[in-house]
Amino acid sequence: MALKYLKDIEVNIDNILVMTSDFNIRDSLWDSSFPHHSSISDDLVLIADSFQLALSTPTNPVPTRYSDTVGEANLTINLMFLRCDSIELNQHTIHPDWWLTSDHAPLSVTIPIANEFITTSKLLIQQNSEQENAFIKEVISVFQNLDTFNISNKECLENMVNNLNSLVNQAWNKNAKRSRITRHSKQWWNNECN
To answer: Can you give the pTM of this predicted structure?
Structure first.
């Protein structure tokens, strides 16, 4: 019923990385011990594809549901779909030794979290300050001393523009002061998070 609902309403959810569940569907696509294929499985794969997800291959292809009834087979019905274009998210692991009192083995995937530098301060020149006046004077002087008579080709123009950029940056760095972006700005990722 859930698959029919998702297929009929064409849900659009952006930026899904992982979809996992006990889908309760047996199919030869993910269980080599099961000889049949179902159109319901096709619906599941199409829905996952609409979310830009693909069926993940486990690092250890073992059953995900274990039966305690004699003669009843163990099944693979817990599945994981991962982001199609992800290099990092391409396989999951089934943990048959973790199922404890449940009859289902947990699935896991490692989602890498990249270190990210968050800018908490910036160089700033206060409006109507002595630093602003000094910066403007230096930039005016740079433009006044600019020699534009030797611009004879594209390479000369690029060199002049790069030199101009460098001189304006020097004037900015000389007169600007480092300021916190807000009084609450601070790096939140620390060794405890690791």
So the answer is: 0.58
**Which residue type is seen at 34?**
F
Helix spans in the chain (H): 2-9, 39-50, 130-144, 154-175
| pLDDT average, residue stretch 46-68 | 91
Q: In b/e form, how buried is each residue of 106-132, taking b as 16+ CB within 10 angstroms? A: bbebeeeeeeeeeeeeeeebeeeeebe
Q: What pLDDT does 137 receive?
A: 96
Q: How far apart are CA 68 and CA 94, in angstroms?
A: 19
Give me the residue label for tokens 């600007």: 176
Write the single-letter amino acid at 65. Answer: R
State pLDDT tens for residues 133-142.
Answer: 999 999 999 9
Give the separation between CA 107 and CA 92, rounded to whole angstroms.
7
Residue-wise pLDDT for 148-190, tens only, equals 888 889 999 999 999 999 999 999 999 999 887 766 555 566 6
- Write down all domains in the chain, each with its CATH number in brackets: 2-108 (3.60.10.10), 121-180 (no CATH)
Structure tokens, 163:
């030199």
pLDDT digits (tens, 9 = 90+) for 101-115: 889 999 999 888 777
Q: Residue written as tokens 């309403």?
A: 9
- Write down the residue that tokens 């007169």 correspond to: 175
